[in-house]
Design brief:
Layout lengths: L1 H9 L9 E11 L9 E11 L4 E10 L2 E12 L1
Antiparallel strand pairs: 1-4, 2-3, 3-4
Length: about 80
């Protein structure tokens, strides 16, 4: 989920050439088992941003065949 958030943020021109640093993962929920070979879809959205410090909080979800399997808030600092 953190890598999905990284890629999502790095596509923003304001953060071009910056390195994403993982600050934290909060409220992680593991709802359903994921087995090797499963086809996953990972979705993410920005929920808050502190532009002056380049700190971004994202909410990410993992779906296994359209069934929510995991979710978490990921906080990143762009440096």
């Amino acid at each position: 989920m953190a890598q999905t958030a990284d890629l999502m943020i790095m596509t923003d021109e304001r953060y071009a050439g910056k390195v994403p640093l993982l600050i934290g993962a909060d409220e992680a929920k593991f709802i359903a088992k994921i087995v090797p070979g499963a086809s996953l879809r990972i979705e993410g959205k920005v929920v808050s941003e502190r532009e002056e410090k380049a700190i971004i909080k994202c909410y990410c979800e993992i779906y296994n065949e359209d069934v929510l399997s995991s979710s978490c808030f990921v906080t990143l600092a762009m440096r």
